[in-house]
Each structure stands twice: as structure tokens, then as C-alpha cells.
């Protein structure tokens, strides 16, 4: 692997470099050793746009066969990629005819429920699968389980990886409560599957069909009274049915999640943190960077979106405000302009302080800043512009 | 006096604050809890997602599952805060209704709580909203304990499902105590005691999501409160246009950029950027250098700023058409520190 694109790991972070490294996005996109890019960060920071812009650039500028997996794209962004429905399959995107040779872009939106159904179908026979699909617990879990979306995003990533059809897979992570959920979903599933509760519920099946209420261990008698009292027998019946039906496929289920997790730890993957220079987004990026470094996951760097800049840094906010006040009556429009400039200068300073929270905590993690655009990105040209901004010459 | 009649402008006991991620709903929820505590009242600020956003906002240690004072107002009001944990809420619920102290611990030991809240998130949401209901309706000596409860709710994308508790649990529990519990919660959430407020920014995606979420909440029959625009900036050029003489616009105003795609020009005065000559004259008369670099730089900033201001005007117009009262909170240059929260609380009180 070329030195310049070595992922930042714990070791690299220990050798703290003073100053501020620039993230070489083009270096990552062009590196044939990089197969997966995972964009992650707090909600509302532009993860999906960043993922789409990276994928488009990889295809058009670096000639890579690229697929971008989006989770919940804004409607107009999805339309710009030609995604009109959630059909869980990569769709070709019409890229520039002048794209680098070999470049292709496909895009897809994750359909969580359908992905879950596919996993079930792959691990059991048709009759059992129907039984599982009809169970109310399966229906609730496959569409609402906190973590299902994260887990299914991992699963879909694993599927795309397994087809070996792509040079590069760019993944947008779900808008989780915490960006960490994406990494924790497989572990949570594992804990869940290993839990005593599950074994208790499975006990009747393994004990030859006796009701779970007949199984009397010291704590279990008490436990079953609680369960009967609180949840009622109908719910418990559905639950046992669901658990029994799923029991046969749990092993395969978990193995897949663990396999994908290992792929994510491999240097063929790069995590790109996405943030805006706001307190919450930077805090989330710091948590995630720490986690990736602790777990020795390949952290590529930070994309800092929506960074404001002033064209007149020499005119301070205070001077501009003072001038605005002085000319307010004679030149109201110019006064408004000076006030707007003062607000911009203050915003730039605030954003620099926010960005410093990250760069001071992770001096060895490279950063690239994307200037704020006055409007949102709605089309491929907009994505190209973001791609260019991500790769300053 | 810790409680009294509802605030005339915020007539609910339970204020649910939601919005797209990144719009600042935790900040707005905290400011609303402060605003409603003014007058010497006691309010409760609740979070349910284990994010510890309230503790971070107020710079305190992580909140336990316990109502504790987090701020006071000058006139003797207080804000208490609570981070509801589903596991704790379940244990408390079991203890309250079934007196299951020891059994609750057994449940935890066998992983039943983790299991139940994992496999059936609808049940978890009933526990969370159930705790919020309990705090909202709690009385001591015949008086309500809280003037108002403000819930820093899950983001807009999940709020419908979170609040539509009966539908979610009905799929799983057709009868029994969980069903009864969820129906009690649903009754409160659909009553005039509750108002769901949507926080947004003057940006395209949050405004779109506000419109989508309002439609969803309407469909679910949940009581709608206000649209709260966070971090709003005054439309400086529009305001200037209202006072500037016509002739001062200069020739360059004819060449101003087209409004952004989809942005309908709003009614009222058009924002007017200054001409280069006007900028130059203003800088000189204020004793600042009016060299070409300065004038060109400011003019370029203004043309970008103008696009923003027009877009924001169009988004304000879109929000106004959604049929809910809109309140704007100013951008806090120093971020949501304590003084900033006071500024927002004052803006909410007078809204």
C-alpha cells in the first residue's frame, strides 16, 4: 500500500503530527486497494451528498466501477441519481460521456425490510420463511428494530462485496441516534442471540414442546409469573413462535454480521467521518474517531462540510459593524452588506473554533473542508462541484 | 407557587419537540422549558434517546434516571431534567403496578429487558412515553407537580412511530396490561394537553422534512403545536430595501443572480444589494479603506448572501403555508451557552 494512503490507526495517532494534514480524497478514490468507503457522522451533516459526490468522482475521474449505497436520501438528491423507487437493487446512473475509461456509477437505496426478508429466505426453507414473515414479531422487528437499519446496511454491504462486481462500494450510514450504532449492530445482535432470555424462550422447543411455564428453575418460576402477568399469553405465544422459527438461522445470521465487521476492519475499507463545524456534529465525529482508533479500524479522515469563508478577512466584524452603524442612514444597503459581512466573519471564527476541537483531539487525522454552498445539491453537476471541492488541487 | 394555569401562548402541559437531525431540537426544548418556568413555575425537560444531550447542553455530568434541577429562573422558577432509560422505566413500571421489586431484578438478570426492548421497539416506546405521561400528570397534595413537561423527542423521521404508540403495540399485544398502558398514553398524546412542535432551519431539507412530518402527524391525529425556526438570521438586504431610496440601487442590481431553483420570490420588498459605488462611498465615509480588493470582495460576498436571503425568504413563505403558527429564534453567535438559552427562552415567551 502506498505510504500516502496508509489508514490512520492507533499507531499513527500516537505519533502525533503537529499541524493539520489535508485529507487526500483523490488518493483514496484512485487507490485500487480501497474497495469500500464508509461515510459516517451525525444526522444532517451531508453524509448522503458526500457519499454520492465521492462515488461520482470515483467513477468519472478515476474510472472505477462504483456503487453507492444510500440509506435515506433526500427526495431530490435521489432523483438526481435516477433513484425513483426503493427497490434494493443497484441502478445505473448516467454519468458524463467524458468520464475516465472504465468508470461506472450505480446507485441504490436500502430497503431494510426487503433486505431482512432476503436474509431470512437465504437461511431457511420456503415454508419456514413464510411462517416467519407472517409472525407479528418478525414484522415489528424487521421494520422497526432499533438497529435493524444499521444491521441491514451492513448486510447489504456484505452482499455487494460478495458479488465482486464493483471496484469501489461507497456506503452512506443510517441516520442513527449515534453514528456508533452502525458498528455496534452486529455485536448487539450477537448479544441478543446469546442472551439467556432467548434460551429460556427456546427451552420448550428443546425440551420437547413442554410449555415454558412448566420449566421450573428457582428464578424461572418467578420469572414466568411476571411474564404471564405483564405480557399475557397471546403475546408470549407469538414471541415463542418467532424465536423458534428464527432459531435455525441464527448461526448464519451472526456469522454474516461478523464477517462484514471484519471486512470493515481491513485496510481495503476507509471510514470517512462527515461533520459540519457545529458543536454536536464535531462531538459526534470525535466520538467516532476515538472508537475507530480504539478498534483499529481504518480511519481515512474527516470531511468537514458547509465551511464558511470570507473574501475580505482584513475587515473585522467589529470594524464592519461600526462602519454599518456610521452609514446606516446615508447608505442603508451598504450598511446591510457590512452587517452581513460582520455576521459572516463571526461565523467563520466560530466554525474555526469548532473545527479545532477535532483537529486538536486528533492531530494525525487528515481533514478536508468543503465550502458552504448557498443552496442544496440537487443534480449531478452539484455533486461534481462537491467532488471538486473535496479534492483541492 | 410551582404550577398554575397554562401559558396562553403555549397552551399544553406536554410539549413534544421534534425536528430533523441537526436543527437544534435539544437546544429549543431546553429553551422552551426555561421559558415556561418563568413566572416561578417548575418544568421538566425530558430526553429519551440515551444521548445525554441535555447534560452536554448544560455542561453537567450525565443525567441519572432521576428528576433533578438543572436551571433556575430569576423569578424563582426551576427546570428539572430527566433522562428516561427504557430499562429503568420498565422496572419502575413493574414495581408500581405489580410490586415486583425482586422479580424485576430477575428480569434484568436473564436479559429479559434488553430482549423485550430489542425485539419490540414499540414496547420500548410505550415505556418511554409512559414515563413522560406519568410525569406530566403527576400530582402531589392535589396540585400538579409540573407546570409543563418538555420532551426532547426522537427526530422527525421517527416521531410518528414513536408517538403512535397504540398502533405499534396493538400489532403485538392485542389485550392485557401493555395494551391498556399504551391506550392510556395514547389518550394523553392525542388530547389538547399535548402539543407537538417542529424545529427547523431555513434550509431546504429541514423545511421539506417539516412539511412531510406535519402531514404525517396530521394523518395520525396528533395535536400540532408550532413550527419553530431555529438559528434564523434577519433578512438584512430585504430590510434595507424597505428604507433605501430607489435610485441608490445602482446599475448592478439589474444583474443580480436568478433565484435558486424552486425558490419562488416572496411577497414584500425585494432584497436589494448595494452597488459597488455605494459600497465604496460607504466604506470611505466610515473611514475604512475602499480599495478595489475590498469592494470586489464585499460585492462577491453580497451576491452569495443575496442567494441565501432569497432562498430563506422562499422557505419562510413555504413554512407560512403549512398552516401552523411559526416562531423564529435568532442565531446565537456564541452558540447555546446559558446566556444564549435565555435569549431563546425570551423569544419563545414573547412569541
Task: Explain the overall architecture.
The complex is a heterodimer of chains A (393) and B (351). By secondary structure, chain A is α/β, with parallel strands linked by helices. Chain A is built from 16 helices and 8 strands. Residues 1-18 and 205-219 of chain A have low confidence and may be disordered. Chain B is built from 14 helices and 10 strands. Chain B has helices at 25-37, 53-58, 86-98, 101-109, 112-119, 121-137, 156-163, 165-170, 177-189, 204-220, 236-243, 276-285, 292-320, 338-349; strands at residues 14-19, 42-47, 68-72, 78-83, 139-140, 143-144, 148-152, 194-200, 224-232, 326-330. Residues 246-266 of chain B have low confidence and may be disordered. At the A-B interface, α7, α9, α10, α11 and α13 of A face α4, α5, α6, α10 and α11 of B.
Low-confidence runs of at least 5 consecutive residues of chain A: 1-18, 205-219
Widest sheet: strand ordering of chain B: 3-4-2-7-1-8-9-10
Terminal residue distance of chain B: 24 Å
Largest interface: A-B, 79 and 90 residues
Strand order of the largest sheet of chain A: 3-4-2-5-1-6-7-8
Note the topology.
The complex is a heterodimer of chains A (about 400) and B (about 350).
Chain A: H1 10-14, H2 25-30, E1 36-40, H3 47-60, E2 65-70, H4 75-80, E3 91-92, E4 104-109, H5 112-123, H6 126-134, H7 136-144, H8 148-163, E5 168-172, H9 181-194, H10 196-206, H11 218-247, H12 250-265, E6 269-275, H13 279-294, E7 299-307, H14 317-326, H15 332-361, E8 367-371, H16 380-390
Parallel strand pairs in A: 1-5, 1-6, 2-4, 2-5, 6-7, 7-8
Antiparallel strand pairs in A: 3-4
Helix pairs in contact in A: 3-16, 5-8, 6-11, 8-9, 8-12, 9-12, 10-11, 13-15, 14-15
Chain B: E1 14-19, H1 25-37, E2 42-47, H2 53-58, E3 68-72, E4 78-83, H3 86-98, H4 101-109, H5 112-119, H6 121-137, E5 139-140, E6 143-144, E7 148-152, H7 156-163, H8 165-170, H9 177-189, E8 194-200, H10 204-220, E9 224-232, H11 236-243, H12 276-285, H13 292-320, E10 326-330, H14 338-349
Helix pairs in contact in B: 1-14, 3-4, 3-6, 5-6, 6-9, 7-10, 10-13
Amino acid at each position: 500500500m502506498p505510504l500516502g494512503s496508509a489508514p490512520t490507526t492507533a499507531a499513527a495517532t500516537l505519533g502525533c503530527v503537529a499541524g493539520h494534514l489535508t485529507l487526500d480524497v483523490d488518493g483514496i478514490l484512485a487507490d485500487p486497494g480501497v474497495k469500500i468507503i464508509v461515510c459516517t457522522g451525525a444526522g444532517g451533516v451531508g453524509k448522503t451528498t458526500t457519499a454520492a459526490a465521492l462515488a461520482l468522482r470515483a467513477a468519472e475521474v478515476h474510472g472505477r466501477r462504483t456503487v453507492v449505497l444510500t440509506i435515506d436520501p433526500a427526495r431530490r438528491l435521489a432523483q438526481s441519481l435516477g433513484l425513483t423507487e426503493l427497490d434494493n437493487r443497484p441502478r445505473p446512473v448516467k454519468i458524463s460521456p467524458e468520464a475516465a475509461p472504465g468508470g461506472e456509477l450505480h446507485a441504490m437505496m436500502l430497503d431494510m425490510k426487503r433486505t431482512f426478508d432476503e436474509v431470512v429466505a437465504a437461511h431457511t426453507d420456503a415454508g419456514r420463511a413464510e411462517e416467519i414473515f407472517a409472525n407479528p414479531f418478525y414484522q415489528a422487528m424487521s421494520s422497526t428494530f432499533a438497529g435493524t437499519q444499521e444491521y441491514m446496511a451492513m448486510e447489504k454491504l456484505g452482499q455487494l462485496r460478495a458479488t465482486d462486481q464493483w471496484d469501489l462500494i461507497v456506503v452512506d450510514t443510517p441516520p442513527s441516534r449515534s453514528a456508533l450504532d452502525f458498528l455496534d449492530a452486529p455485536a448487539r445482535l450477537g448479544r441478543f442471540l446469546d442472551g439467556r432470555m432467548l434460551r429460556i424462550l427456546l427451552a420448550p422447543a428443546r425440551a420437547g414442546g413442554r410449555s415454558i411455564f412448566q420449566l421450573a428453575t428457582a428464578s424461572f418460576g418467578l420469572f414466568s409469573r411476571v411474564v404471564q402477568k405483564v405480557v399475557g399469553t397471546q403475546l408470549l405465544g407469538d414471541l415463542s413462535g418467532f424465536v423458534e422459527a428464527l432459531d435455525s438461522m441464527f448461526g448464519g445470521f451472526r456469522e454474516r454480521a461478523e464477517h462484514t465487521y471484519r471486512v470493515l476492519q481491513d485496510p481495503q475499507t476507509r471510514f470517512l467521518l462527515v461533520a459540519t463545524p457545529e458543536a454536536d456534529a464535531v462531538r459526534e465525529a470525535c466520538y467516532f474517531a476515538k472508537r475507530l482508533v480504539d478498534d483499529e479500524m481504518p480511519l481515512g479522515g474527516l470531511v468537514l462540510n458547509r465551511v464558511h469563508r470570507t473574501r475580505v478577512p482584513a475587515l473585522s466584524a467589529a470594524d464592519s459593524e461600526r462602519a454599518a452603524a456610521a452609514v446606516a442612514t446615508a447608505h442603508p444597503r451598504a450598511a446591510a452588506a457590512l452587517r452581513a459581512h460582520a455576521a459572516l466573519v463571526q461565523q467563520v471564527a466560530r466554525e474555526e473554533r469548532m473545527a479545532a476541537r477535532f483537529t486538536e483531539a486528533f492531530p494525525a487525522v487528515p481533514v478536508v473542508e468543503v465550502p458552504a454552498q448557498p443552496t442544496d445539491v440537487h443534480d449531478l453537476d452539484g455533486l461534481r462541484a462537491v467532488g471538486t471541492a473535496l479534492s483541492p488541487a | 407557587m410551582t404550577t398554575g394555569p397554562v401559558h396562553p401562548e403555549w397552551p399544553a402541559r406536554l410539549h413534544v419537540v421534534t425536528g430533523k437531525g441537526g436543527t437544534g431540537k435539544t437546544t429549543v426544548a431546553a429553551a422552551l422549558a426555561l421559558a415556561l418556568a418563568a413566572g416561578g413555575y417548575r418544568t421538566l425537560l425530558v430526553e429519551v434517546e440515551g444521548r445525554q444531550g441535555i447534560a452536554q447542553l448544560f455542561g453537567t455530568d450525565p443525567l441519572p434516571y432521576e428528576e433533578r434541577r438543572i436551571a433556575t429562573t430569576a423569578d424563582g422558577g426551576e427546570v428539572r431534567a430527566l433522562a428516561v432509560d427504557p430499562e429503568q422505566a420498565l422496572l419502575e413500571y413493574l414495581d408500581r403496578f405489580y410490586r415486583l421489586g425482586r422479580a424485576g431484578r430477575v428480569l434484568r438478570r436473564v436479559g429479559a429487558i434488553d430482549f423485550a426492548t430489542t425485539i419490540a421497539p414499540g414496547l420500548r416506546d410505550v415505556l418511554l412515553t409512559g414515563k413522560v405521561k406519568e410525569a406530566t400528570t403527576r400530582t402531589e397534595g392535589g396540585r400538579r407537580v409540573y407546570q409543563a413537561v418538555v420532551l426532547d423527542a426522537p427526530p422527525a423521521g421517527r416521531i410518528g412511530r414513536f408517538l403512535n404508540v397504540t398502533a405499534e403495540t396493538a400489532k403485538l399485544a392485542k389485550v392485557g396490561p401493555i395494551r391498556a398502558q399504551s391506550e392510556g398514553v395514547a389518550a394523553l398524546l392525542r388530547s389538547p394537553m399535548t402539543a407537538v412542535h417542529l424545529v427547523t432551519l431555513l434550509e431546504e431539507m429541514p423545511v421539506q422534512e417539516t412539511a412531510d412530518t406535519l402531514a404525517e402527524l396530521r394523518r395520525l391525529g396528533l395535536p400540532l403545536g408550532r413550527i419553530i425556526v431555529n438559528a434564523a438570521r434577519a433578512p438584512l438586504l430585504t430590510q434595507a430595501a424597505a428604507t433605501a431610496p430607489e435610485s441608490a440601487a445602482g446599475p448592478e442590481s439589474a444583474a443580480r443572480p436568478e433565484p435558486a431553483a424552486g425558490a419562488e420570490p416572496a411577497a414584500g420588498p425585494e432584497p436589494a444589494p448595494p452597488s459597488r459605488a455605494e459600497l465604496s462611498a460607504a466604506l470611505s465615509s466610515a473611514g475604512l479603506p475602499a480599495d478595489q480588493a475590498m469592494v470586489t470582495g464585499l460585492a462577491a460576498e453580497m451576491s452569495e448572501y443575496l442567494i441565501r436571503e432569497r432562498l430563506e425568504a422562499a422557505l419562510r413563505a413555504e413554512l407560512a403555508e403549512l398552516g401552523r403558527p411559526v416562531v423564529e429564534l435568532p442565531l446565537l453567535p456564541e452558540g447555546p451557552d446559558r446566556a444564549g438559552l435565555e435569549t431563546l427562552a425570551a423569544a419563545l415567551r414573547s412569541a
